[in-house]
Structures are given as structure tokens and as C-alpha cells.
Amino acid sequence: MSSSLEASSFITNLLPVLAQRGTTVKFLRKAQELHGLILTSTPTASKSPYAFNNILSMYVRCGSLSDARKVFDCMPQRNVVTYNALVSAHSSSPRLGVFCFQLLTRMQEERLTPNASTFTSLLKASSTIKNWILGCMIHAQCLKFNYLMNVHVQTSLLGMYSNCGDLVHANKVFSYMVQADSFAWDSLIFGHIGNGDIIECFQLFKTMLRTAVIPTHFTFSMLLNACSRLRDYRTGKLLHAQLILSGVCADLPLHNALLDMYCNCGDVITALDVFKKIDNPDSVSWNSMISGYAENRDGESAMRMFVQFAQRSLSPPDGYTFASIISATCAFQAEYYGKPLHAQVEKAGLGSNVYIVSTLLTLYFNNNEADSAQKIFSSVSEKDIVLWTDMIVGHCRIGDTDGSLRLFHGMFQNGLEIDKFTLSAILNTCAEGATLRQGEMVHCLVMKKGCGSEMSICGNLVDMYAKNGDLKSSKVVFSLTNKPDLKCWNAMLGGYGYHGQPEHAFGTFNEIINNGLEPDEVTFLSLLTSCSHCGLFIKAKHLWNCMKEKGIKPGPKHYSCMIALLSRAGLLEEAEEFIIEELPVGDYHHLKAWRILLSYCVRYGDLIVGIRASRHVLDLDATDSATNILVSNFYAAVGRWDGVREMRRKIKETVIEKDPGFSWLEGMKNKTCVFSSLDLSHPQSGIMEAMLHGLLETMTHSEVGEFDLTGQ
């Protein structure tokens, strides 16, 4: 009898120690064995609430909530500690958080009085499931039982209101706190970030520093993520400096937050420095660097980082990794990187991953391989709205307006709910394809779905009407937009550019600055396009320098626009110099740039620049049909008939056929007429040809009279 009591006492005293140490799933088996030993060997201990509470806590720490609930249900007697352990265990689960309030009801039925720990866990559960009403009810209970001055309860109340979006009550709770610690500050800052009040969260951070409260890792991570979302590079750099000054030793999540901020703000050089300081980067670290290079259009560096990841990381690339690296290589020909990566995706069993499929569609459409994109799209059994939208965007990118519209109608036939992203995509299709009537019908659908106030859609509507020649409707849509964002301003600016109104375009640019908005690459592209249409090459040069001063990295369209502008003004040598000095070495778009220059050499009959340009295009791609035909046209324009014969011989040897270019025109009764060059099949072709000759003559006289050779 004595030995049995001694064993019971020993196990009872040992339980708290084991409950603290058993914190992993690996310990679960031993915990179950110990539980069985207690039940069979120590009947006295097995009836003790103290022993049961420790066993329950042991299961909770091992992550086995089902075993913990079994222990709870079998207990002959429960106390507040028992309930607190189980409530706390379920408070962090969005799926099981409601169970905490069922436990509160049972607790009250057993006439047990909740304490501060109970309310802290219940408030955490309200925060997790974002149930403001339940949170308010627990707040009332805290008041009833006089726990409102408890620091832990106050912090939990603050977290609950912040997470539920009630910043008014969150600020009130915060103001009542005698001495707010870093956790309280973090809760309030997190609430403001979650509600999109980014400016206020930085003001709170400044106040936090003034009150001598030391920021935590979580504080810096939250604020860095906010800078990343806003692409606020300056504030992000200041935060990094404050992190170093505060002496906080950055852990892996904080390093990842720094990586994400620098990559999103375009500073991949500093991001790489941060990356090198991480001893054991995880997949998030690698993915941040790969996506950072992708967003900054540095596919080569992204590919090198991907290879290093595959060689050094213990974990294999996941869906996000493949999506990022495929996105990074979309600018290259699919044979080089895209198709081998696609093969790896299939080998890894990730071929049905929606994010990867989306980037693969972009890859193949960028390479004008619509058939390959269609095969991938058809292979997906459950196509969501994202993939349908990607297909619409892809067909629009390759100039297949009809294909985009068919897909849009197919979405309706398949019963898919159209969202704002799909509407934006189809409006862009109507803009690029010059299908005004279809655009007007989509506008009606926008109003019907109540998306008229969506800023992105407003921008697309302005753009659609402008590109369809209806600048008046563009102005109306823009004037009805409340506080237009940069995209909407850019669309209006671009509209003036399309319609040859540079004075209005530059006036809109000044309004963008006056409204406190920072111009982006799209703003400058619209201005450059406006200058290009009107021959304002001096202003275009000024804009180019201004763009570089602001740290905006030019894209392929910026380069093409400047080269076309200089070439159109007859400044062919300057355009050539621009390609050599400005365009990045090894850029995939060099071929397009030299083609533009060569086409204007054909127009102006410039033999010297044209010969150099033709050498470049032939060196870059001698088998391309468009390249060979363009070079042949150049030789013909400058009277080099030996060169013409050589190019025609090459064309015949390689059996190159130039794809015919098709145009379309929206006619009456929603009919679309499709025609090609020298197409005389239309019954009224004679009348149309006479009208075209008249228009051409009018335009020629207009250009001679109005073109400004000074570029001012």
C-alpha cells in the first residue's frame, strides 16, 4: 500500500514537468503511454483534477486536441484551470474558435467563475474568428467580473477590436492602458495596417519610439510589409536603419520581410546583400529573391537564383517558386527557359497548380504560341475565373480580339460569375481591338454589376473610349470618377496623346503632380507616345532624363517609343546611338529596336545607318521572315539591287512566307468586316478605295502644313 502511494505521489509530481516538456508531435506517443500508466497504476492520482489538468495540457502541447477533449469529457470533476487549458487550446483556430464559447456555456452551467485567463483566451478566439459581436459580449463580461484593469485582458481586448476592424474602440482601450507594452503597441499598429490606414500606423510607431518602448521583431515585420505593399522605399530604408540602431537581432521572418520590401521597391542589390546574411534561407527567402528579379525584369538573375535554390536548398521548389521563375523568363523565347521549366513542373506533379498554369499561359502567349496555351487551358479540369481572365488577356496580347470576346461569352455560357478583373481585361480588349459597340455593352454590364466606382475599371473605361475615338465619353467617365487614382489619370493622359493633343496631355501631367501622385512608368510612356505622335522630340528627351532621375526603369515600350520618335523626325544617327547607349546589353528586345530603325531607313533612304541596322537585325535573327523582308525592302529603297537579289534568294531557300496582315472594322448591326491588304472581295471596294485616296491626300497636306520640325 505504501509503495502504491509513493508511486502515485511520484507520478503526480512528475506530471507538471512532463506537461511542460511534451511540446512536439513526436512526444505524443509517450504522452499516451504515460496516460495509460496513470490510469492503470495509480487510481488515486487518476481521480485527481490536478493530474487530469496536467495530462490535458500535455496533449494540448503535443498538438492533439482530440485527445485533450477526450480527457476533458472523461474527467469526473473539472475546475477553472481545466476549462482555461481547453479554451486556450482552441482559441487560435479559425475553424474551432466557436467551440471556446460552447465551453464558456458549460463552465457557467457547472457554476464555475471565469477568471482573467479565461477572458484572455475568449477574446483571442473572438479575434481569430473575427466575430465582433462575441468580442463585445466578452468585453461586457470582463466589466461585470471587474477584470478591465488586468493588463493581459486589456491587451487581448485591444487585439480583438483591432483585428475586427473597430479602431475606435481599440483606441479607447489603448488610451485606458496605464503602461502599454510592445504587445499592445503591436496590436494597435496591426489593426491600422489591416484596415488600410498605413499613414497612422507609422505615426503610432514614432509615438512608440518616443515613449521608450522597444519594438519587437513583429513590429518591424509588420511595418516592412506595409512599406512593401505601398512600395515606399524611403520609409523602408529608414525602418531598416532603425532596426539596426535598436539592436534587434533579425530572425528569419524579419530577414524575409526586409527581402520582400527591397524586392518590391526595386532594389534587388540591397535585397541580395540581406539575403547573403541569412545563414539558412528557407523557401520564402529564395522565392522572394526570385520574384524580386522577376518583377524587375531580370530573368537571367532570377534563373541563376533558381539554379542555386535547387542545388543548395533541402526543400524542393514549390508552386510559388515555379510560378515566380516562369514569370521571370516570360520575356525570353520559350525554348530557352520556359519549356524546360514547364517540363520540370509536370515532373514535380504541379501541372494543375492554378498559379503555375496562369504563368504558363502568360509565357506561351508572350511567345505567340496560342495553341500551346490553349492545350494547357483545356487540360485543366476545373477552370476558375482567373484562368479564363488570363486567356482573355493572352488573346488580346497577340491581337486576337475575336478570340478574347469568344472567351468572354464562353464564361457566361459556363455560368461563371464575372468579377472586376475580368471586366478590366475585356475592356482592355475592346480598347486594343477598337470595338466600340462591344465596349459600350461591357460598360452597361459594369454598371449593372455595380462596379462603376471601381478605380481600375474607371481607368479601363477612359482608355477604351479614347482608343475608340470617343474622347468626349472618356472625359465624361473621368469627370464622374471620385478621387481618380494614378491609373485613371494615366488613361486620361494617354487619351489626349492618342488624339494628338499634347498640350492637354502635359496639362494632365501637371495635375497628377499637383494631386500629390507620383508618376510611374505608364505615365511617362503615355507622355512619350504623345510626343511621338506630334514629333516633339526635344520634350521627349527631357522626359526621358526626368524618368531616369526618378529611378523609373524604362521598359521595351519606352525604348521602342523613343527610337520611333527620333527615327520619325529623321534623326536616324541619334536613334542608332540611343539603341547602342541606352538599351541594356543582351536585351531580348534589341531585334525590335533595330527593326524600327531599319524601317525608317527605308522611308528616308539612309544608306549608311541602314546598312549598320540591317547587319544588326540579321545577326540577331537571320531566319525571321519579317527581318529578311525588311532588309530586302531596304536594299530596294537605296537601289542596292544585288542585296535585293541576295535576300530574295535566302527567302526562297528558307521558304519564308510573310503572314498576311488582317484588319477589321465594326459595321452596322454589330457586323465586323475583316479584310487584308489588296483585298478586293468586298462589293463596294471601288468606292472605299476612292475614299481612302481622298483621306490620304488630306492627311498628306495636313502633315506638311502642321508638322513641327523644331520639335518644340
Second-tier CATH architecture of the domain at 521-706:
Alpha Horseshoe
Shape: elongated
Q: Give the percentage of residues in beta strands.
A: under 5%
**Unreliable segments (pLDDT under 50, ≥5 consecutive)?**
1-5, 703-712
Biggest β-sheet: strands ordered side by side in the sheet: 1-2
Tally the beta strands: 2
Number of helical stretches of at least 4 residues: 40
Average pLDDT level? 82
Structural class: mainly alpha
Query: Which fold name corresponds to the CATH topology of the domain at 521-706?
Result: Serine Threonine Protein Phosphatase 5, Tetratricopeptide repeat
Mind describing the biggest β-sheet?
2 strands, antiparallel
Helical residue percent?
over 70%
Radius of gyration: 34 Å
Q: What's the N-to-C terminus distance?
A: 108 Å
CATH class label of the domain at 521-706: Mainly Alpha
Which key features would you list for this structure?
elongated, mainly alpha, Serine Threonine Protein Phosphatase 5, Tetratricopeptide repeat, disordered N terminus, 1% strand, 712 residues, 71% helix, two-stranded antiparallel sheet
Give a verbal description of the structure:
This is Pentatricopeptide repeat-containing protein. It comes from Cuscuta europaea. This protein is an all-alpha fold and 712 residues long. A two-stranded antiparallel sheet has the order 1-2. Helix 17 (268-276) packs antiparallel against helix 18 (283-295), helix 34 runs antiparallel to helix 35 (572-582) and helix 36 packs parallel to helix 38 (625-637). The longest helix is centred in the C-terminal third of the chain and has 22 residues, at 685-706. It starts with a helix and ends in a 6-residue tail after the last helix.
